[in-house]
């Protein structure tokens, strides 16, 4: 290690001293701790095999980007995303919805994947019926966790969660319907907005609602980051490293799936992801210092390698 | 037609002048109308195939017993289960959760059924991936419908719904784990309480919460009716008519599934269903005339032929 690196001088661009990797590490640690407690609580109920499979699915790693967006968005609007707060409950619920979608997405009848985050998928590690039930149960568990404290303020967030979850399913169905035929650019954008954009967007808006009771103008930030995230995901599938990603790459091409990079080219797709990120940053600029983490996450969404 | 039948003298037992078939017909008509509107709303969104499959699943008939229990329970406690009210929204949400569970239950990886209510199951009429997504989407849609109006009172009902849905999944998992091995009577009762009892129970308790903001002592009624309903279901599978039921009979025996009738005999199982019904009726007796429909439903649960 050079002296410069040790002293931190070269540790990031001058305009962004915020350590996003450290932030994400801290959020994951916290989210994983809570998910572990939720899974342990499930394991006190029967049957054990379902509870173990739920734990296996929930604690399989992952960047916990959606929870990070919820907490950072809450902070950005002056909220305190402390332990047991509404923002944290929403963050965990959103991650459970995301996790359920991965479990079902991997099923033989869907994407038929054997590997997820470097481990056997749930239907491989257990069986297909258990994987169906793990997904179903995680969706219920998400709503139960969010609503279980009896806090009436959770109603608006649960409605947002349900809406995002439904749009995600519509996106999956668009994706399945698209296999084997050529989508237009508009169709690809519609698919992206639903399949991935809906939950990313719900994360940003949900953090704002948890902090202030309203979306407070963050809807476009959610939409832009959702778009940027999915373009980055498609670029990583084309150009990324399977080991770093913990999943197969080149899947979209192999499945004949149209993505934005496949339609407009890698460079143009990269430019559009950057532009979407910049538009989100422009909306966040007036929020000043409290939005520092959210702005760093917006940049991470497009620059990430995993 | 004899004169006596035409004049209605023989149309029911003297102690129960309440026309439960007519009540159920009116509830189904109302529930079907609302579900049709919900499905039509989905069909304004894309993709069309998912929306059509959701409509196919939602409007496949069914007794609408759970919605009837919600509305009757609400009435029993002096509530007005009018159009667009909280009880009606909960009733529809509960029926959507029930419908999703049937769609997933019929999947090849689960019970592998080709027929449901006399029609091809969703994965037969469409395909397996669509059936997974229809179930997933219906669960989200249930919560969205219940919470979508922004009524904070919906939070408690959505928590109840989530809890019932999760217990139902645990019951399904217990059921799958039980195949091929002999369950004890306690295990069978546990399985029944979770797999079917949870939603039946949620229906009764949810109606009370919609009417008064609290379960108002109706939890035991929900539990007893859930037990009675499942025993009746198992008896119909053993002795019922496939045409009237719209599904295969003798399934449990063929699959080697332990049921209460298979463990204790048909007569004893029938006696226990009757006793559970009587216990529910005893709790409901002090509620008087407003609980007439709920008491008639309690009797229907054990006397039904479909």
From TrEMBL, chains A, B:
GO terms for cellular component: cytoplasm. Pfam families: polyprenyl_synt. GO terms for biological process: terpenoid biosynthetic process. The keyword Transferase applies. GO terms for molecular function: metal ion binding; prenyltransferase activity. Keywords: Isoprene biosynthesis, Magnesium, Metal-binding, Transferase. Its cofactor is Mg(2+). PANTHER family: FARNESYL DIPHOSPHATE SYNTHASE (PTHR43281:SF1). Belongs to the FPP/GGPP synthase family. NCBIfam families: FPPsyn. This is (2E,6E)-farnesyl diphosphate synthase.
């Amino acid at each position: 290690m050079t002296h410069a690196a040790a002293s931190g001088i070269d540790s990031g661009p001058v305009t962004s001293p915020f350590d996003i990797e450290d932030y994400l590490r801290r959020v994951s640690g916290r989210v994983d701790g809570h998910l572990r407690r939720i899974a342990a609580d499930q394991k006190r109920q029967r049957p054990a095999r379902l509870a173990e499979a739920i734990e296996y699915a929930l604690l399989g790693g992952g960047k916990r980007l959606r929870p990070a967006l919820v907490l950072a968005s809450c902070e950005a609007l002056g909220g305190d995303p402390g332990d047991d707060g509404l923002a944290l409950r929403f963050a965990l619920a959103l991650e459970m919805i995301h996790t359920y979608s991965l479990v079902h997405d991997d099923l033989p009848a869907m994407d038929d994947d054997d590997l997820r985050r470097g481990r056997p998928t749930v239907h491989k590690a257990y069986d297909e019926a258990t994987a169906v039930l793990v997904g179903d149960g995680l969706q219920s568990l998400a709503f139960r966790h969010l609503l279980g404290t009896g806090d009436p303020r959770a109603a608006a967030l649960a409605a947002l969660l349900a809406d995002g979850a439904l749009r995600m399913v519509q996106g999956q169905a668009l994706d399945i319907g698209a296999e084997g035929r050529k989508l237009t650019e508009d169709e690809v954008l519609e698919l992206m907005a639903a399949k991935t954009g809906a939950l990313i967007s719900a994360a940003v808006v949900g953090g704002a609602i948890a902090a202030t009771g309203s979306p407070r103008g963050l809807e476009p930030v959610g939409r832009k980051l959702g778009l940027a995230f999915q373009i980055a995901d498609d670029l990583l599938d084309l150009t990324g490293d399977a080991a770093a990603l913990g999943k197969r790459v080149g899947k979209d091409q192999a499945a004949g799936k149209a993505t934005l990079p496949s339609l407009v080219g890698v460079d143009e797709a990269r430019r559009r992801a950057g532009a979407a990120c910049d538009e989100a940053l422009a909306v966040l600029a007036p929020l000043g210092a409290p939005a520092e983490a959210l702005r760093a996450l917006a940049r991470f969404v497009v620059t990430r390698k995993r």
